Amino acid sequence: MSSQRFLVDLLSPEEEEAVRVLQELIITKTDEAKKRAVQVLAKYITVSYYLGAEKAISQLGLPIQPTSISVQGLDAVINELSPVLEETFGFLAKDLTDVIEQGIKNNMSYQQIKQQLQEKLRTFGNRIPFQRAGQYREIVEVSPTGRLRLVRKKIKRNITISTEKYADMLARTAVKKAYALGHIEGYKAGGIRKWRYTAVADERTRPHHLALHGKVFVVGSKEEQLALRVMGEPNCRCRPIPFFDDPRYDTPAEVYEREKQEWANQTYEEWKLDKNIAFIAKANPQSREELFNLASDLESRFRNKNYRILGHILGMKAHQMAEDVIKTLDENFFYSKKQGMFTFVHIYSKHAVKEKFRLSDVLTIRKEGMRIGEAGNALHIIGEFRDGRKMHVVVNKKNFKIITAHIASDRYLKNLLSKVKEVEYDYQAK
Ligand SMILES: [Zn+2]
Description:
- By secondary structure, the protein is α+β, with helices and mostly antiparallel strands.
- It has 3 domains: 2-122 and 162-248, no CATH class; 252-331, no CATH class; 333-430, no CATH class.
- 55% of the residues lie in helices and 15% in strands.
- The protein has helices spanning 2-28, 31-60, 75-89, 93-106, 111-119, 163-189, 207-210, 222-231, 253-274, 277-283, 288-293, 295-301, 305-314, 318-332, 343-355, 359-368, 410-419; strands at 127-130, 136-142, 148-154, 159-162, 194-198, 216-218, 239-243, 335-336, 341-342, 370-375, 378-384, 390-396, 402-408.
- The strands form 5 sheets. It has a 4-stranded antiparallel β-sheet, with helices on both faces. Strands 6-5-7 form a 3-stranded antiparallel β-sheet.
- Helix 1 packs across helix 6 (163-189), helix 3 (75-89) packs antiparallel against helix 6 and helix 9 packs across helix 13 (305-314).
- The longest helix has 30 residues, at 31-60.
- Zinc ion binds at residues 199, 209, 236-238.
């Protein structure tokens, strides 16, 4: 297990270098830079491909060398990279992919090249414009049940991407994709004809990636190609694992189903407030009735693709999600006559935007933070963020509804501690 982990970690400095060199290429745009950058990229793509194969082989415990794995699998990366480079470099694209192919065959060295490229850095601008509004691009659409299809989407506006970001995206995507392909090539060598899509539990997991968690693909199928394209989306950390079609070796599907639900629930619990609070705060309801009247407008927000996927996994319809948000706000915040608004509106507009925290953080800290004591009819709770910032949450001590929440300095908290009376308090937050 530890050696496999090592291989995966090893990818990162290589990706970094590929990113750097590609970035320099985009900036300098010279033929020389181009050739060499592609060599480096090709090298890393190849290395990544073999690392993927090696991992697959070690997973399967096969007595073969990763280098005996066919590099044919890399064609897909080259074919996909070609239009992307075309978009950026126009006529250079064919040359670029030719050199990639050569580089893959010859595994060239790249140390001095890197230095030369660095000298030429910042000759050109540091943003790349993409004038593609009105044109179409193909994207893989994932249905709530995990079905895949290719759809054409019209590009709405021209965009400018920072060189750094673009190079990062391009190199990482190519390297990552090569890794996955090498992986699958390794399975093929071991006689495995199917693999399983596994997502990662974390707040950055996109719902349409989560929808594929645990889904099994047949090597060489059209669906597999689409799944690999999803895996090739920027910053995706999903991975293929072998599927043996044998219950003695495969983790039961229920396990993936359970994880999927758990992660979907985490995402939903954060998004339901954080992605809708700006809208609700702007409406600024003046009574509970007005708050409940927002449900129908909210419902249409929950009809978008991401929520449809989350809703499918969690068994919730758009109107149920909308009602749930209203209920959550109503149960945890109250209308403050003094401020002329609900306390979540106050917290959002007066603190959260400026102090950069999320409404879901407030609920978490109220539940898990330290209850330092009471003063008047208020109970004071403090909690700490991972980045070291501290939050002060004030709740009504009878019904536990939130009065306010804000980021507090150590000095503020010290002062607060001297003013509150310590109490035993056993109210359980939901
Ligand atoms: Zn992913």
